[in-house]
Amino acid sequence: MNSHITVTPLTRRIGAEVSGVDLTQPLSEEDKQGLFDALMQHQVIFLRDQKISHEQHREIGSIFSDLIIHPGAKGIDGYEDIVAIHADKDSKYIAGDNWHSDLSCNEIPPMGSMLYLHTLPQTGGDTLWSSMYAVYEALSPGMQQYLSTLQAEHDANHVYHAIYGDYGTAYPCNVHPVVRTHPVTGRKAIFVNESYTTKILGVSKNESDGILQMLYNFTKDPNFQVRFNWQPHSIAIWDNRCTQHFAVWDYFPDIRSGFRVTMGGEKPE
């Protein structure tokens, strides 16, 4: 790793703050590799005091993978792959105020996301991330083995019709394994979430509901989480393949505003 980059873990299981790099300047290959390695190790990384442009946002996101277009939220003018994240006194809802992995409903779910916030409330507006590695590893060997045989349905329609209406004909609905293997680290992670996952296939509704609720309860365990206190011009980059996150809406009617890009992934296995 480039000696200028400092990576400071925030908890034992997930999250690190990265310093010593200026994202408003061209990055060396060592800097890019350092950011990539930090993300693979810590699952979510944070950088502060980074007043980036839209072009720089796209360039940095592309370090990790090609950017994709959100199937529900329209991009901003001139940048179809950048989504505005904004809440104020007129908001009736906010993006992400429940536990989820971004767009797990896609046939090929994204590998990650990068959120840049430029305007923050004076207090509140934190985001939490939970490690799905840690959730998997907390389960008994027998439960790990059983869950590894199951698949679950991930459906966006009940989420996005309520928020965006009929943007297009139908939102994605796809089936993925309940346990996935990370393509870079080789570690296993739970891959169901309260927002998109509707059912586990091949079992009764009672069994499906019980398994999912157990896994959602593990996700909410603070022992598996990191909480980030945003400041103006902070950035979070996270790996959707092994984390879930939750945006806390405790700042109404204040403004919380920024932009997000989404990085393409691979079919879960």
Automatic annotation (TrEMBL):
**GO MF term (any one):** taurine dioxygenase activity
Gene Ontology cellular component list: cytoplasm
Q: Which UniProt keywords apply?
A: Dioxygenase, Iron, Metal-binding, Oxidoreductase
Stored Pfam families:
TauD
Gene Ontology BP term (one): sulfur compound metabolic process
Where do the TauD/TfdA-like domain residues begin and end? 7-261
What InterPro entries does this protein map onto? AtsK-like, TauD-like_sf, TauD/TfdA-like
Note the superkingdom of the native organism.
Bacteria
- Homology family: Belongs to the TfdA dioxygenase family.
Q: What is this protein called?
A: Taurine dioxygenase
Native organism is Alteromonas lipolytica
